[in-house]
Write a structure and sequence with these properties.
Blueprint: H1 19-35, E1 38-42, E2 45-49, E3 56-64, E4 67-75
Antiparallel strand pairs: 1-2, 3-4
Length: 93
């Protein structure tokens, strides 16, 4: 695969943690969203994400038999670096 082709890399983390530990993860995600760079690491696998200026944000809460679930989903489109060249512009002279 050449460097110009895209690779789908998936990283999954599913484990039990104390709420304070989860809060640290969420703070790190928030910091990464603000800085424009999220680095995820699990063992030897590292994934670096670059959130775009516009992100989708979905939050769902559900309760079933006293089990509460809160799901957060973030999404954005990857840019190929040419977005600046195709930006909309109006020039009056």
């Amino acid at each position: 695969m050449s460097e110009n082709e895209t690779k789908d890399v998936e990283l999954v983390h599913d484990a039990m943690h104390e709420p304070a530990h989860v809060a640290r993860y969420l703070r790190a995600i928030a910091d990464g969203l603000e800085s424009g760079k999220l680095r995820l690491k699990s063992g030897a696998r590292v994934v670096e994400l670059h959130p775009a200026t516009l992100c989708t944000f979905e939050l769902r809460s559900s309760t079933e038999r006293q089990r509460v679930k809160l799901s957060l989903q973030l999404g954005w489109r990857e840019t190929n670096g040419s977005a600046e060249n195709s930006a909309f512009e109006i020039v009056a002279e």
